[in-house]
Amino acid sequence: MTKIICIDCGKECERTGSNQKRCPNCGRIKKLERYRKRYRKKVEEFAKQGLNYNQIHNHSNRTYNSEYYKKHKKRIDLNYRRYYLRTRDILRKQAFKILANGKSIRCAKHGQWGCCQNSLDLDILQIDHINNDGANQRRQISSGPMWYRWIINNPEKAKATLQIICANAQWKKRRMVEDIKRKRRSSKI
Fold it and tell me: Which one, of 167, 177, 183, 182, lies nearest residue 132 by Cα?
């Protein structure tokens, strides 16, 4: 085991974490690289030339990272997209389970409208706002994974305002709402 000596006071230091050391004399916690001989030599060499080693080193890392991103942009974006879709699907399934309230996940309007042969396919089923106030909720909460997280974190509010219906029932409901709005407009004229 190598001895690690504090840069400031010159005493031997104890290990506090995976990449940190604490000096028993001055009590300062520093990153492990600051205690390494090679790092100290480079800092001293750069200081003799009037340069700051950390600024130059961090700048070269930044330029390398941006060049790497430009070179591998498609692969990085594809991996990010896969991660996003995977987490979104997991959150979506959890939200469906919460809204189903421990029962099997089915369309809420099937018995009333007979729209989907009582499908259990999650690709057909959608989460719907009972009172058609989805735009207001999207303004407050957001959409996508953040919305699914809201459902998971607030199950009682979600059960009171949301339901699971199939795509056919969603279209039928939308059509019914539009018909009601048309009738109201025509009666005002």
Answer: 177
- Backbone angles phi and psi of 7, in degrees to 5: -70, -35
147, 138 in Cβ contact below 8 A? yes
* Cα–Cα distance measured from residue 96 to residue 147, given in angstroms and rounded to the nearest whole number: 12
Positive or negative, the CA dihedral 151, 157, 159, 165 is: negative
In one-letter notation, the amino acid at residue 32 is: L
Total number of residues shown for the chain:
189
pLDDT tens profile 35-87: 566 677 777 787 888 877 766 666 666 777 888 889 999 999 999 999 988 88
Do residues 156 and 100 make contact, with C-beta atoms less than 8 angstroms apart? no
Least Cα distance to 30 among 45, 55, 11 occurs for 11
Check: CB of residue 109 under 8 Å from CB of residue 165.
yes
Give the DSSP letter string of 85-100.
HHHHHHHHHHHHHHHH
CA atoms within 13 A on the CB side of 149: 8
